[in-house]
Design a protein that fits this description.
Number of strands: 9
Strand order of the largest sheet: 2-3-4-5-9-8-7-6
Oligomer: single chain
Number of helices: 1
Strand content: over 45%
Largest sheet: 8 strands, antiparallel, barrel
Structural class: mainly beta
Order of helices and strands: EEEEEHEEEE
Shape: globular
Length: about 110
């Protein structure tokens, strides 16, 4: 019998995410999160996926995109949102764990500062 996928919605989020490379953030528990950035209609969206990456494979970031749009660090605030070093708020759209892998999507709207 095939094993059914397990999908759990999480309410406990990383307290801090620090940029560690061109596509990588690290949380306070030394877990690595790969990111995919998208911008549509004035809304910035970042998809973060927790992956096991050896630290020797992460190069320092010099990406203009990371430096101009994506924050160097996010800190968790009450209300399921993060704030970055430019005091922009990013709402947690969802945070799930499926088949042992965590995924989180963050939104920031340029129009209303959210």
């Amino acid at each position: 019998m095939a094993k059914l996928p397990t999908k759990v919605h999480l309410t406990s989020h990383p307290v801090c995410l620090r940029n560690r490379g061109p596509s990588v953030y690290e949380d306070e528990n030394d877990r690595m999160w790969l990111h995919l950035f998208m911008e549509t209609g004035g809304v910035l969206q970042v998809r973060l996926r927790q992956e096991d990456i050896p630290s020797g494979y992460i190069a320092p970031t010099t990406s203009p995109l990371t430096l101009s749009v994506l924050p160097l660090m996010w800190r968790l605030k009450p209300g399921d949102r993060y704030v970055d070093q430019m005091f922009r708020f990013w709402r947690i759209v969802h945070h799930i764990k499926e088949n042992g892998v965590e995924e989180m999507i963050l939104h920031h709207s340029k129009e209303n500062g959210m």
